[in-house]
């Protein structure tokens, strides 16, 4: 290695003057990204050596920030400095990166030969290299190569059982499933995801269990296998959530399952909680949560507030659901049909078209409620006309609709079958009923639930219960760790969605 370094250093000045310009430009552009990657690598190495998982979590967050600046030259130079030259991991990962210019490669190999101090690679660094190359391939839209790279990384990951790898493994699981989803082949990895979840359970990798459970639920829901998703969810072990990101996703998938199973009250709570817990930067995720929450609230007979549709950055995306809500609020069946036809492509892409079909009964019921309030007595023929029923026998259908609404206590009325009338009863004082008490109870339950969640989310510095006499050096070290912990907690809400 020493003779090679001397030869490389001596061969560089012999290059032509014209070739020196691009090499200097490469040196001036790549070192910033490469230097950051080296700092991330040293952070992972320190975390692996001291078994401090928070350092590896910090390294993953720095990688997300650096993601848009990654280049093939910087990643190739980092691989040369981190992995053993000629090793299986180095040769495989290097094959996925595009070949750079000869002068760039000379500069990279020269700097790597100078700066590498040891060739003993921690398994955490090797897994991080897999993750780095996989993210780069996905960003470059090389989905087939990303698919192959992710499969190799998972095969390597199965042979490693270290708790310091769990954070990196959870990210690899996500991009492994994401690469197959981008190539429309999610069904191929379902069996492998199940085996990985079993392996994570046996190794007590709780973060991996959370991630893999969400990936399996997403896999099942992608193919509309809601029964299988519910069976898996009910049988999977549950524990305290370790990642706010994964917990939000779990609540979203749970809300979708509950909606399909007609458990609208539980679905509404899960979807609203997922939207509330998600960070502000996860706009796309929050939009999907609000879309499903609007549909669920409409199926429950509630009308969402206008402020839901006027949230910053969501107005355009929620416009179809705003018009749908307006049609349901008015109770106009014809307007409901026109809105459903107008935005059918949007509803199909959101996979909410089947739920919107269920709303037809709610539109009819809302229109019937408005009619019962406006008229003390009205014929069933007029009821059918006002509801705009398009059935072959509108009067008979109107009679059955009114009878069902009366049985469900949706309206307070009676049917005069002899004369063909719907007779509404006089509206009494609402405060003489139990409606105000039930509304007050629901608000109190919501506030108590939020308080309990806030108490559970409290975080304390480690070993805060121990009161020991400490020296000035230990005090400074403890304060520095507390500052890093506070910074880590502050960035928790900005996690990548």
TrEMBL record:
Residues 13-26 have a biased composition (Low complexity). Residues 1-26, 459-497 are annotated as: Disordered. GO terms for cellular component: proteasome regulatory particle, lid subcomplex. Transmembrane segments: none annotated. GO terms for molecular function: enzyme regulator activity. One of its GO terms (biological process) is ubiquitin-dependent protein catabolic process. Signal peptide: none annotated. SMART domains: PAM, PINT. It holds the Pfam family Rpn3_C. Residues 1-10, 465-490 have a biased composition (Basic and acidic residues). Keywords: Proteasome. InterPro entries: CSN3, PCI_dom, PSMD3_C, TPR_PSMD3_N, WH_DNA-bd_sf. Acts as a regulatory subunit of the 26 proteasome which is involved in the ATP-dependent degradation of ubiquitinated proteins. Belongs to the proteasome subunit S3 family. This is 26S proteasome non-ATPase regulatory subunit 3.
